[in-house]
Amino acid sequence: MAHESTYQPNTAIERWLDDRLPIVRIMHDQFQTFPTPRNLNYWWTFGGILTFCLAVQLITGIVLAMHYIPSDKLAFDSVEHIMRDVNWGWLLRYTHAVGASMFFFAAYVHMFRGLYYGSYKAPREILWILGVLIILVMIATAFMGYSLVWGQMSFWAVTVITNLFSSLDSIISGLGTAIVQWIWGGYSVSGATLTRLFSLHYLFPFVIAGLVVLHIWALHVPGNNNPTGIEVKSSSDAIPFHPYYTVKDAYALALFAMLFAWFVFYAPNYLGHPDNYIPANPLQTPPHIVPEWYFLPFYAILRAIPSKLMGVTAMFAAIFVLFLAPWLDTSKVRSTKYRPIYKWFFWLFVITCLALGYLGAKPPEGWYLVFARVFTFLYFAHFLIIMPIVGVIERPRGMPGSITEAVLGRGRTGGGAGAEAGGAAAAGPETR
Amino acid sequence: MASHTMTESEEPTRRDFLFIASGAFAAVGGAAALWPLIDQMNPDASSKALASLEVDLRPVREGQAITVMWRGKPVFIRNRTGEEIEAARAVDLNDLPDPIARNANLPEDAPATDENRARDKAHERWLVVIGICTHLGCIPKGQRVGDARGDYGGWFCPCHGSHYDTAGRIRKGPAPRNLDVPPYQFVSDTKIKIG
Ligand code: HEM
Ligand code: FES
Fold first, then answer.
1. Cβ-based contacts of A164 with chain B (< 8 Å)
2. Taking Cα atoms as reference points, which of A312, A225, A273 lies closest to residue A36?
3. To 10 degrees, the CA torsion angle through A358, A361, A362, A363?
4. Handedness of CA B133, B136, B137, B142 (dihedral sign)
5. Residues of B with CB below 8 A from A184's CB?
6. Which of B43, B138, B159 has the CB atom closest to A186's CB atom?
7. What's the CA gap between A47 and A119, in Å, rounded?
8. From the alpha carbon of B157, which atom of ligand 2 is closest?
9. Which of the residues A96, A137, A334, B21 has an alpha carbon 20 to 30 A from that of A387?
10. CB pairs under 8 A between A and B
């Protein structure tokens, strides 16, 4: 949010730098005194957590790349070499592998947060779109990273996923095959494929970093949304980012890091598939090809639809529909807290995503397939039917006049509600 | 630009010309530079060079099958039994999900009769197909003794449940096309050259 610069360069050298490159001023204004709604809850700490995750992946990844060999003959052995011979190699690799899971976990929480509190609505559409772009590039990055191990799951996941593009053959004969061979650099998944996946796996995280900068820029123009969805109106609605939210973010990050460390040290392979410890064999397909957990909902949608082309289209559409959310939601009210009907559909949507995740790990037959189809329908219905219609027919609950009122109550004692208790306090002013 | 006529000063006209000319230069140059960057990803000369392979068929007895690698892909070669050929011939073409032969040695629209799936009349026992499921690229089962061969006695792809018959044609499941027959020819009665 645009606010008067409060930076005071005190020493001569600070003034000298400020006249030439006001970088300290920008950091001060954007990350220290930046006015932030006083009622942000813990769901707002995932932005900082995500930044941490990106940093962890970049640092461990660059170090892993010092030992990893992107060749179809040597890749698998070099990963084992990292695990057994390289000093601390096991720690670096497990942190990177678990880190990808933690990254997606945090990103999904962050996205549900945005959906619940209506953070995608005007004036934050661009911010939301940048977020969807980030998750898209993250998906591509993690997919390519997983292939680098060159185990059985790596190899066959690459085979199955790249073959998705061959479905374009049913639109223009030969087009799909041409694209797939272009991706492979051969007539099948091979060493040529692995080296390009490595090159792009190295590049894409930096693209993500660039998108994150834009994402934060787009955040700092309108400022944060908050649990009430009401914009900051007066100075009593906002508090400086530092120390209030730096400490809150740091505390949440410490808890998150404990969970992260628990996986790294006690269950590093729990989230992975044992078949990826078998070297890639182009002549033998494993009995079940399952992607990493964070792709399962999309995999369920892919397999729910009997036509190959339509299945692929639906899978990509499941992400692209997110771009449209700001315009599909017709409600004037941002926060689901004040939306009595939509609230139920929001939780139905959460259940839908979890159910699709469960079904993505099951064979697509019998009841599993039936339910996969039902939930695929519900997934798209949420955006294309529920969001436009509920916004029109629903009568929102009364809203507090301001963030301060939501936190402290109007004409009554705050009931001990501090800035952190926004959720409990905001439920009060219903009777307005 | 069109609004600058000769009656106005000559300077803007020349600048406009340079602007358009250098813009066009950059556009054409950019496009020309882009192509090598895209095309470098296509299959390279060394993988194209691996493109042909001779296979000796003598060790393959009736009812047996072997798998060879061609262009990095498994090729299934099966010496079919009389019953297997009979079964494939008894099928009504209208019952086939994919009625096209998919035989690189025949015209593109040849129908998927059993005869069209083999190389020629003299070698109808031999079925040579690329062993890659046309759904999403898994390797179907059925080459080894004891493998599940699916409901039609040919191959079965466990990934998403596609059943192929003894002519390698898709009969049931999500795969859209029959297994592809690669380009090949008999260089002698007991030897084929693939590619
Ligand atoms: C957005 C950030 C990133 C994500 C989500 C990500 C994800 C992944 C995943 C899922 C794996 C497979 C882990 C396994 O099962 O072993 C992997 C491996 C790998 N990644 Fe990344 N990565 C990221 C950033 C980077 C960066 C910046 C580099 C720098 C070059 C890098 C280098 C590697 C290497 C060398 C491997 C193979 C060794 C291994 O298996 O651990 N990654 N990555
Ligand atoms: S890859 Fe064979 S059925 Fe899907």
1. 136
2. A225
3. 150
4. negative
5. 43
6. B43
7. 13
8. 2
9. A137
10. 71
Distance B17 CA to ligand 1 centre (A): 50
CB-nearest to B176 from A189, A190, A308 is A308
Q: For chain B, how long is the longest CA-to-CA vector?
A: 91
Phi then psi dihedrals of residue A275, to 5 deg: -60, -15
pLDDT in tens, chain A (432 residues): 567 899 999 999 999 999 999 999 999 999 999 999 999 999 999 999 999 999 999 999 999 999 999 999 999 999 999 999 999 999 999 999 999 999 999 999 999 999 999 999 999 999 999 999 999 999 999 999 999 999 999 999 999 999 999 889 888 988 999 999 999 999 899 999 999 999 999 999 999 999 999 999 999 999 999 999 999 999 999 999 999 999 999 999 999 999 999 999 999 999 999 999 999 999 888 888 899 999 999 999 998 987 778 988 999 999 999 999 999 999 999 999 999 999 999 999 999 999 999 999 998 888 999 999 999 999 999 999 999 999 999 999 999 999 999 999 875 434 434 444 444 444 433 333
Kindly tell me the burial class for residue B115, based on how many C-beta atoms sit within 10 Å of its own C-beta (0-12, 13-18, 19 or more).
middle
Q: Is B160 marked active-site?
A: yes
User: HSE of A211 in the Cβ direction (CA atoms, 13 Å)?
Assistant: 21
Least distant ligand from the CA of A66: 1
Half-sphere CA count of B58, side-chain side, radius 13 A? 2
- CB of residue A57 inside a 6 A radius of ligand 1: yes
Tell me which residue of A167, A222, A189 sits closest to A75, measured CA to CA. Answer: A189
Task: Say what the pTM is.
Answer: 0.88
Pick the CATH number of A30-230+238-291 from 1.10.760.10, 1.20.810.10, 3.40.50.300, 2.30.40.10: 1.20.810.10
Report the topology of domain B49-194: Rieske Iron-sulfur Protein (2.102.10)
